[in-house]
Structures are given as structure tokens and as C-alpha cells.
Amino acid sequence: MTVIRLGDGRTVMPDNRWDLVGVTPTTPLVSVVIPYYNQPHQLALVLEALTDQSHPPDRLEVIVADDGSTCSPDVSAWTSRLDITVVTQEDKGFRAAAARNLGVAASSGTVLCFLDADTVPTPDYIRHSIRLPAAAPDALVVGRRKHADLSRVAPDSVVEWLSEQRPLESSHGCEPGWLVDAYDRTSNLLNPGWDGYKYLISAVMTCSRQLFDDVGGFDPSFVHYGGEDWEFANRSFMMGAMFAHEPDALAWHDGPDWAERAVPERISEKNVEALALVPLITDPAARTAGLMYSIPDIVVVVRTAGHTAASLMRTVAGALRGMDAAVWLSGAHADALLIQLGVDDSRIRVGDPDASTLSRCRFVVEIAGNVVCSADSLTRLAAQVGPGGCGQVTVDFAGSPASVTVTSSRARHRVRRWAAHVDVGAEELLDRLFGVRTVHHSEVGIVIGDVEPALSW
């Protein structure tokens, strides 16, 4: 796997290797997007701290996205020191996701820095948080968040207060232990696994506009506290983002972490969040109830050419057996073959997978020919395709025209995003960024079935 250089000095990194990123080629225009709802004192602290950033002030703009507050945020005290804009949406519930999208739409920067209205950045926060996204546009970076009671800190003294806290910055005091443990376990998300999305907190999140636009922004259907950052991070990863934790990008959150707050009905609150996320996040850890959802973990595209209804039954059944999967039948006679199958199974569909599914599933399997998978064939193939593994596995059928390929969605999308911007073909780009493997069909329990298998009993 190798680093791919773009013509503007930026780079496309292999797998999740943010540790290979070089120096930022330029000083980008940074858009700080702040969702806000009736938090005048907290916002004042954030804006004052933004006037003291080491990032050049002429390369910084601030967008305050008001989620329908009863009184619009008053930013007049900072307009002479910050390039600041206020945008507002109607109050229709907790719509932080939609507010962030609204803020981005009003911004101009090539790097987007998301801060919450109660999260006060230290002087070097922006400079550190943008280092990776400015040089490697696939990077999705989460900073470090400490907690304190800032209710008695005045806006005109917040810079002094931040300076007084410097001795605390090198320790993990005042930080949520679950995040400290996760960043330590994953080497600051260098090895994120499939569950790294749980450690991307939108209060201290930074990415390139290019990645944000390609991913499609935050999901505005989230109208309840929590969950929208996990969904955005997970979808970003499936679409080829590179996760990184930047411990030097430190901000102070006014108040305790959610886990330490006195939240009534805590379990029911988290259940609302989980129920909103589980149809959209295919991580097996999220789907432990054994239920099936419209968006599967594994998308299987079966080419119907050369199939009879009987052979297609064997191929489709093998692909679905014991899996969180759905099959799309693709070919001239797909509709007729589905009718002949006589099944009433929502996991079997005709045509091509939609964009929403392809942006959230972990794997895409393409099958041609009368192949029959055993109960664990796709599981064994998928285990090789993922963070730290390869991007694609091809099954060798020893000269037969049959074919099976398993590709991670993140590899597919990163290659799609950059194929037109580099001087190598898509297949070579996939190999250089993620690696490609070949396995013999016998190693994973796949056989070639009969064109007309006997179904009688």
C-alpha cells in the first residue's frame, strides 16, 4: 500500500494510515460551525476563545447556526474581531444535525471545524485540528475534550482562564475515561476497527469540505439529543474516511460528560438513540437482536445471466444463509426469475442497491455464475476485508467463468472519490490504497453448482 499524491500537494492515504501524512501544503480557510440553542453565555466564551487562536485570523470564519432559539444569538461584540455569520432555522425539536448542515451551507472554508456552543477551544485548537484534513482530505479528526464548570467564567476573562488551565492539559484529568481508554486502545484511532465511529464526537470534530460534501453531511432526520455524530462518523467511514484522534486539539466543555449528568430516564433516553441508529449502522455490535433492516451489513449483487430459477435459488440461499445480508438480482430476466422463485422475502430485491444502502453497508459482494456458498463462506471472506486487512478479496475458480468478489464499502468509495484525480486506474488505485487478495474457492467453501440442480424431495 502506498500514499497517492494529488496535484495540489494534498495526499490520499492508504487504509487508515494518518501517521504517514506529511506537512500541510497551504494555510486553508477554516470554517468553524457552531450549532446554538439559547446559550448566550456559553457562546460568548467560545467566540472570545476563537479570537485568540494561533491560526491566522484572516483564514478563519465562524458560522453560528441557531436551532430556533427564542432570542437570536447576539454576536455584535465580536464582529470587529471575527468574520462571523449567524444563520437560523425554525425550532422543530433538537436539530443539531440540520443546524450543522445549515452552517456548512453558509460557509466558504475548505476545512470544516465543528464546535458546540458550550465547548471552548484552547489557543492552538484549530491549528492542531486541521493539520490532517488540510493535508489528507479523507481525514475525519476528533479532538480532545475536557470538562469543567465555566458558568462563573466571564467572556473577557476566558482567555486568561484557559491559560491558567495549561498545567492540566498534559494529563487525562477532567476527561471522560471511556474516551481516554478508547483512544489508548486504538493508538489514537490509527487502528480504529469497525467500532471507531463511537469515539468521533461532533463537539470537537474536523474534516475537509470535500469529504463532508461527498458523504452528504449530517442526517437531518435526527431530531433528538445524541446519535447524529455516530451516524455521520460511521457513514463517513463506510464512504472511505480515515479516522484520527488529535490529542493536541483540546477544548473545554462547560459541564460534565453526558454519562455523568443527572439525566432522568437515562435508559429510555439512550434507547431512543439506539433505536434511531440501529437501522442505519450495520455494526454487528449494534444489531444483536437478530432482526433484519432495510440496510444490510452485506450487499450481495447476483448477476442472473446463465441462471435458471433452480440454480438461482441455490445461489441466493447460500448468500443469505445466516447473514445480515440482502440480495439484489441484476440482469435482463431478474423480475421473471424472482417470480419463479415464489418467495416472499424482503431481503431479495431486483435492480441495483440504492445510494443510501451503499453509503452505510460494510461490504459489497458481486456474484456471477452458478456458485453456491456454504454457511460461513461470506463471513470468512469478509473477515479479510476491513481496517488493517485488505480492500478486496477475489475468489479463484480455476478457469471457470464464475466469479465472487468481496469489497469493503470504504475501499469502494475512496477509490471512487479519487479515481478521476489521479493517473492510475481504479483497480490499481484499489490495490495501492487497500490491497487485493485472491483465495481459491475451496478455501472458503464455495462450489460451482449445476445449471439445473435437483430440487425434489
Automatic annotation (TrEMBL):
Domain Galactosyltransferase C-terminal: 197-237
Segment forming the signal sequence: none
Molecular function (Gene Ontology), one example: glycosyltransferase activity
EC numbers, comma separated: 2.4.-.-
Glycosyltransferase 2-like domain location: 31-149
Keyword Nucleotide-binding: no
Keywords: Glycosyltransferase, Transferase
Entry superkingdom: Bacteria
Name under which the protein is recorded: Glycosyltransferase
Species name: Gordonia westfalica
